[in-house]
Amino acid sequence: MIEGADKYWNPILETMHQEKLRALQLKKFKKIVQWAHDHSKFHRQLYADAGMEPGDIKTFEDIAQVPKVEKAMMRDIQRKDPFPYGDALCVPLEKVTEFHQTSGTTGQPVYQPDTWQDWEWWSESWSYIMYAQGFRDTDRILIPFGYNIFVAYWAGHYAGEKMGCEVVPGGVLDTKARILKMQELKATAMMATPTYVLGMADTARRDLGLDPAKDLNISKILCAGEPGASIPSTKKRMEEAWGAKVYDHVGATEIGAWGYECTAQPGGLHVNEALFLGEIEDLETGEIITEPGRRGKLIMTAFDREAQPCVRFDSKDIAEWAAEPCPCGRTFRWIKGGVVGRADDITKVKGVLLAPSAIEEVVRSFSELSDEFEVTVTKKGDVDDITLKVELVPEAAGQKEEVEARLVDQLRLKTNLRYNLEFHEYNTLPRYLVKARRFKDLRKTH
Fold it and tell me: Exposure pattern of 224-258 as b/e (b: 16+ CB <10 Å)?
């Protein structure tokens, strides 16, 4: 029996000696590369173009020969037969049992198929996360999440059930109703973005006269969607507001739930090296960084996901390896400070990745609106606030209500966000001659 085994979901893998763990990772990496090559037209062509075969991978150093995959590649091959997944699908369509998609905030969304086995893998990866954060079968978890086509907390829901927790879906309840249901049922835990965690606390105090730390029974909160739970000052605010421990985790639709904070809270996130390979690549040279203290972008491989494999996916998340082992006893490497940002210019608003071009695409699809618009992101208390200013063209002067309704729907559909909409008179917003500055993120200046 491994000492302290009750701390670990899988004590054998989570405390495996580094040398054995690396050998296991290499074996699993070779297997998933062979699977992708044999069953995916996309991967087979990708590897052929790179002049490599799965059999070329013999050592850890050889992994760098395998070409990376980027989200744009997936967009290019989807929406064709086998519809809608295209050439990366590795199983017959009838084996696909789960559909999710990315938010589409950086362009058209990427569709993600999963088999039943893949979905069990999702639950398993989340079970590592939740068990490491102290979730047990005695917990009653309320998930204040509007269940949608985005993967979000779906897998957390099923992992909670798998672990024996009692799971209460928040679903379409509004914020006040969710808080009252927490109080009514004496829920012990929840999952949400940091922004929503703080927003719920504010709603509880302002609208319901409740102090979450005293009047509710939440003892732990699992966060995702934005980096707040890895930022000490934000974590402190959440923990003080709720009288609960707050834990971070990170993942992506295309990759899976690959990283998590444990109860030791060393100031970073473990990579679940039993189920994933995390590589950190130098942004300028492409060199794989193995030593601590150097930041690069994470290249992720999911070992056991078969329907649409994730092999050396460029996550664009910026991170660095920690120097010392975690006090929790896990031998999985961890990244210092969690994910510290993105390699591109995407901004997170209310936990959603937002590209200004996505807003531009919506606004300029309306003939009733002029070419000019302005987006401003600020903070109201602890909650992000986003305002979109637009102009009606003179010919549409009497159509404000109808245009506003359609604009709200399209923005929600294409960016997964709600905006404060301001309609300005034609020709009153700033005009630009060269480079426009229509997107203004004022959160960092206030």
Answer: bbbbbbbbeebbebbbebbebbbbbbbbbbbbbbb
pTM of the model: 0.79
* 316: three-class secondary structure by DSSP: strand
CA 144 to each of CA 29, 189, 199, 346: distance values in angstroms, whole numbers, following the listed order? 36, 11, 12, 26
CA geometry: angle 19, 21, 23, nearest 5 deg: 70
Beta-carbon-side half-sphere exposure of residue 116 (alpha carbons within 13 Å): 2
Residue 436 has pLDDT above 70, yes or no: no
CATH class of 1-344: alpha beta
DSSP state of 137: T
> Could you tell me which CATH class the domain 352-445 is placed in?
alpha beta
d(CA 185, CA 195): 23
Question: How far does CA 196 lie from the centroid of its chain?
Answer: 15
Question: At CA 297, angle to CA 263 and CA 276, rounded to 5?
Answer: 55
pLDDT-derived band of residue 206, with 50, 70 and 90 as boundaries? confident
Give CA–CA dist 375/349, Å, rounded: 12
Contact 302, 275 (CB under 8 A): yes
Quick one: average pLDDT of 19-30? Answer: 98
CB 362 within 8 A of CB 410: yes
The pLDDT-based confidence of 104 (bands split at 50, 70, 90) is low
Kindly list the domain boundaries of the chain, sorted by start residue: 1-344, 352-445
Q: Which of 286, 264, 5, 256 is nearest to 125 (CA)?
A: 256
Write down the H helix ranges in 140-231: 154-163, 175-185, 194-208, 212-215
- 207 Cβ contact partners less than 8 Å away, ≥ 6 residues apart: 176
CA distance 16 to 200: 40
Q: Stretch 7-35: mean pLDDT, rounded?
A: 97
DSSP of 329-370: ---S-EEETS--EESSS-EEETTEEE-HHHHHHHHTT-TTEE
**What gap in Å lies between CA 213 and CA 210, rounded to an integer?**
9
